[in-house]
Amino acid sequence: MKVLITGANGMVARAAKEYCEKIGDDVAALTRAELDIADEAAVQAAVAELRPDAILNLAAFTDVDGAEAQVEACNAANVAGVRNLALAAVEHGVRFVTVSTDYVFSGEKEGFYTEDDLPEPKGVYAVSKYEGELAAAEANPEAVIVRSGWIYGRGGTNFLSVMHRLLGEGKAIKAISDAFGTPTYGADLARRMRELAATDFTGVIHVTNAGEGTSYAGFAKKLAELGGFDSDLIEEVSGETLKRPAPRPRNSRLASVREVKSLGALPDWEDALARFLLSEK
Ligand SMILES: NC(=O)c1ccc[n+]([C@@H]2O[C@H](COP(=O)([O-])OP(=O)(O)OC[C@H]3O[C@@H](n4cnc5c(N)ncnc54)[C@H](OP(=O)(O)O)[C@@H]3O)[C@@H](O)[C@H]2O)c1
């Protein structure tokens, strides 16, 4: 398959490039400097020239707190950018797979959010991602919108991705014990996006590693256990003590009620975390 990957310097994009190349795809992975997805003409030109079979959109404005003060830039990538790609995909008969977030939910539900739950995003980033979902579906009824959450992986700069390094260096960390999510290894998410591109699935689908999910503190403790780090370095705190600009859902654990022929659940999050740790050695 010929695959166009956007946002190629990003954490999940790099994992997608690696996976697609490994299975023998012809991959065009374009960085933001090579393709700004907010630039409609550039998107049209790139898709017309490259003629991919599938687009995996991994470009996004992902600074959740920064988005509160950069609404325009956030919407340019997360709404207009997604629409531009969805439209170009329709015009050229290309499969389009894009990623959204668990943050589209308010976090007030107990248990897991499924695709049947109603989004109620709070904060600029969350709203932009939901509007991106709506823009993708409107522009391209065959779009695949993958909602995922708590993603970590090689080269990632978010807390989940760097925790093991901090613990490995003997640094104390504060980990929130009252926010819950379903951790997702970027490499597993990337593989599933490529697999979805090869199906005829359309619409929204939740993709996370399997299991009951955990809190940031639970994730940190599992890391300490699997990696042989000192768990005394982990201080459990309440999310409220961190005073961050953007709101975050208290509980954004995702589960899927969509069935895609030939695709089972992703591995359990603890198994995924062990593989991530091994890959970092
Ligand atoms: N990380 C998580 O926990 C999480 C959770 C749920 C959903 N997601 C979603 O998962 C996807 C991948 O996330 P990630 O963690 O891999 O993000 P990331 O590492 O921040 O990568 C995003 C990439 O997109 C690029 N980008 C930004 N604006 C662009 C534009 N207008 N045109 C082209 N490229 C642009 C960025 O380039 P610059 O660095 O140059 O800005 C960056 O390389 C995103 O859609 C994100 O919203 C992430």
Radius of gyration: 18 Å
How many DSSP H or I helices? 8
CATH H-tier superfamily? NAD(P)-binding Rossmann-like Domain
- Kindly give the count of domains: 1
Largest sheet strand order? 2-1-3-4-5-10
**CATH class type:** Alpha Beta
The biggest sheet amounts to: 6 strands, parallel
Give, in order, the helices and strands. EHEHEHEHEEHEEEHEEEHEEH
What small molecules accompany the polymer chains? NADP nicotinamide-adenine-dinucleotide phosphate
Number of strands: 14
> What is the chains' assembly state?
single chain
Q: Kindly, what is the distance between the CA atoms of the first and last residues, rounded to a whole number of angstroms?
A: 31 Å
Q: What share of residues is helical?
A: 25-40%
Secondary-structure-derived class: alpha/beta
Low-confidence stretches: none
What's a concise summary of this model?
The protein is α/β, with parallel strands linked by helices.
